[in-house]
Amino acid sequence: MEMYTDVLLVTANVGSLFDNVGEIEGDWLREFFTTVHMYKPRFVALHFQEVGGKDYMMNMGHAENFFWTIESSSEMADFDRVCVYVDSHFKAVDSFTALGSMYFIHKSLKNIQQYDFNVKEFKAVSGHNKYVGSLEGVTTMEKEKFPKNFWPDFKWSRKGYMRTRWIIHNQGLDLVNVHLFHDASNLIACNASPSVYSANRKKALRYVINRIEDNSYSPLPFFLFGDFNFRLDTLSLVQNLSMSADIQTVKKDSSNEVEKIICEEKDNDHQVLLHIETKLFAYLHQAVFRENNGKELLKYDKEISSFHDVITEEDISFPPSYPYSEDYTKPTQYMNTRCPAWCDRILMSHSAGDIIHRREESESGVVYNTLGSNICMGDHKPVFLFFPLKTIAH
What is the DSSP string of 99-114? Predict the structure, then answer.
């Protein structure tokens, strides 16, 4: 007999929660709890990236407190089994990923097991299992930082992935928390299509998928959710935005290096339409990124297309998830540091797409959206996927 278990997956780059300690955390939590209350899932998976923020050495204690606040909250009291994995061991430079994954199992969900990668078998889940600090020797998850040679020209960062495996009512699945490389410079991102950064992300994502699908553990349907740092194809976008403009390239005096790109409108008093520097992307008509949920720009969101052989995604009907203003009075405004993009995503294998139950039109079904669209959630809006998982009753 086929049954359904309502599942909520959430991904959130929470770096700015810790860089602005305390300011937005209350609203962030309220928004998350409201969503749980609204959809009433039986299984919740939360994937965090950049735990501790940029000053993680200073903020890691606060980050651990944040996890405890969620775990011990009255809003989550009906979830009687909890698994928490926080890689906060920043002194281990070679392995630190700043990833945190939390899983909540509702008291009404009886048949659930978690995989032990050491003994290669599934075991019943009970109580609260918390692993914070070094995750060395924790056998119910697998994590890896990307090899150093993945980006020879860039600073070695905290990017990597963390994976857990579950069986919910006899349906197995892999849940993978991912953080891929960002665009270091807007100017370099404009140089080629696809950009050098895009090529790096592609290589890293292929690496993760190969690791999940390798045969040391029998492959299962998988959900990959995290901060993929997917960016719009900057070169074609800039060409499009500046079609009717005069483009000036300003170089540094001594070298041939481009310092800024300025596009001015031909008439209209030569108003600056677009100004790009390493960490500046100022476009005059910012509303284009949000009107109609940025739908016009989805054609520049190309990075997933080379993975269509293995990965699928629900239709995106929300504006780019990054980089929102961190000023809590401007929850719908983007910062002009980067071109807005759909960085935070929930992707799945085709086999995972097949175990999502798509109800009749009248029933509530699959929802793919951002959390806190009108509330300051930091520079990333968390992205969630709610769906009924097809499970098998024995």
Answer: -EEEEEEETT---EEE
Whether 17 contacts 25, CB under 8 Å = yes
Give residue for tokens 């800024």. 260
Query: By C-alpha distance, which of 70, 72, 56, 73 is closest to 18?
Result: 56
Within the chain, residue ranges assigned H as helices are 15-19, 25-39, 56-71, 186-189, 196-213, 234-241, 350-354
Do residues 314 and 385 make contact, with C-beta atoms less than 8 angstroms apart?
yes
- Kindly tell me if the per-residue pLDDT of 1 is higher than 80: no
pLDDT tens-digit series, residues 283-339:
998 999 999 999 999 999 999 999 999 999 999 999 999 999 999 899 999 999 999
Task: Answer whether residue 359 shows pLDDT above 90.
Answer: no
* Cα(365)–Cα(293) distance, integer angstroms: 21
As a whole number of angstroms, the distance between CA 262 and CA 250 comes to: 8
Q: What is the pLDDT of residue 218?
A: 87
Rounded CA-CA distance 389/41 in Å is 10
Helix (H, G, I), strand (E, B) or coil at 304: coil
Any bridge partners for residue 45, and if so which?
9, 103
pTM: 0.96
As given in the structure block, the two tokens for residue 60 are: 């890691």
Position with higher pLDDT, 250 vs 10: 10
Residue 16 CB contacts under 8 Å (≥ 6 apart), including other chains: 24, 53, 326, 378, 379, 380
List the structure tokens of 173.
């699945």
Count of residues making up the chain: 394
Do 284 and 272 touch, CB atoms closer than 8 A? yes
